[in-house]
Amino acid sequence: MTQAIAHSNHSDSISATLDLYTQLISTTTDFISFVDCDERYQIVNDRYVVATGLSKNEIIGSHIKDVIGSEIYESKTKAALKKCYAGSPVEYEGWFSYPAQGRRYVRTRLIPNRNIQNQIIGILIHSHDLTEQKLAEDKTIESEAMFRQMFEGHASPMLLLDIQTGLIHDANPQACTFFQLSHNEIINISANKIATLEESEQGVFDRLLGGFTDCDEQSITLNSGEQKEVEIQSIPIWVEHEAHLCIVIRDITQETTNQRELATLFKNTQVGIGIMKPGRTIHKCNQKLCDIFGYSCNKELETQSTQILHFDTPEEMKFVQSYRDQLKQGEHVHTDLKLKRKDGSAVWCTLTANPLDTNVPPNLDKGILWVVDDISQRKAIEGMLQKIASKDGLTGIYNRTFFLETTKKTIHNATSQNQHCSMIMLDVDHFKKVNDNYGHPAGDLVLKTITQRINKMLRKNDDFGRMGGEEFGILLPNSSIKNTFNIAERIRQSIESEPICIGCKKLDITISLGIASINDSIRDMKQLSSAADKALYEAKNAGRNQVCSFHNFCNI
After folding, report:
1. Residue 260 to residue 372: CA distance in whole angstroms
2. Residue 12 scores a pLDDT above 60
3. Half-sphere exposure of 427 (CA within 13 A, CB side)
4. pTM: predicted TM-score of the whole model, two decimal places
5. pLDDT at 3
6. What residues contact residue 200 under an 8 Å CB cut-off, 6+ apart?
7. DSSP one-letter code for 520
8. Is the peptide bond before 157 cis (omega within 30 degrees of 0)?
9. CA dist 228 → 155, 249, 277, 306 (Å)
């Protein structure tokens, strides 16, 4: 696209360039535009027009600032255009608010365009939409009430950081206590101002804001001058439709104190501590360790083998076989492991091990100091977050990523056990007209209503997911193609038979459905979903509002 234009005349060069670009960008799904040296639009593709909410005639000839808005223009575009007009291509990415499509995460590249005299005659602006990819990588939280309860009640200090600004959006009571600040004092200030790193100019949370999911142990100094050893972990989440980092801070200052203070630590620390001698024997332990594993006092644990705390799972056996080698090599031993209480129940723990011998390599027969922390609550929160991240934000059913991953396993089990398994792909007929005529809120209501009706007709072990837009997928384990056709037809009739109310208006909505079942030729999720998709296309091509079976029109 950046080749010199054939005509030497400046205006003719621009005209020829515009003709060429118009042909090249007519079918792309990216946002593409071309502005002249006055920063006025000369070309925009259809995707760009949709995003702005303006007509193409309103955009062409307008200044870029008047179309994209002052916020985007001043924060990114203005400086990028200046650099590009100086002759250098520019690339940046981030979240931007589009008038008609809301917040989207895009990667934008600006490329200077020159004529045959090597004069810059305009800038090509190419933006690639990465929103779905970005959202799939993030663990999202759609239930603010659920997260609020977990956030406020967590035993560790927790912060919510705005990813874009690095400001503290919220802090739980434990965080306020830890940093010795009131809630009003800690909110809306830079996270890096509440503490500093020892012997480093980098901010405490810079690594996390830079994209790292967790950090090693750090020595920090609070504003009061108090020094702390902490372990910081982060989880990317969505709060109030904005991207944030949920920061969990664990104070491990006492875990790193000198061995001479071990007696005091045994009495006062809030984590379990034990010394293991040769033969995996628990030589000494504190009361907290007993509490974690459900023993009344240290006499019940001391002289016992640590084997009584293990389930002997493959993960545990691998850890037991490897940690001694790690310690001998001077490596840090730190892991999360599910261990066993006295009553046989499971407890998730963080285990940290250090040799008592300070020589290199250490003599492990002198003993190993174990620090054990009960992280069952943290694991429960992580499990809830993972569950939330599997749901589609609008309809509450599985999102595309989780649906495909779940169906892949179900289909594999069905094929290996020679069982029936079928898939339905369905699409709302003429859905674009609903959005165009009644607005996106009406379209959202239609999708949610259809989802609710279908959910009532499915079995507990059926998987139901939103594939994107107005397209949905249903996996029916132990369902033949004949039974699946009957189910699909009942679903179709239930949508057709009852209009959906939008205010005072009743909309007659129909759906098209394609079905397919595994057989000798269809053996995995990709093949099954592709077959159902082709059947859906056939149903739409045949006039919509009907069920089409892949096996009726394909010789397989």
Report:
1. 19
2. no
3. 22
4. 0.38
5. 44
6. none
7. S
8. no
9. 17, 11, 30, 31
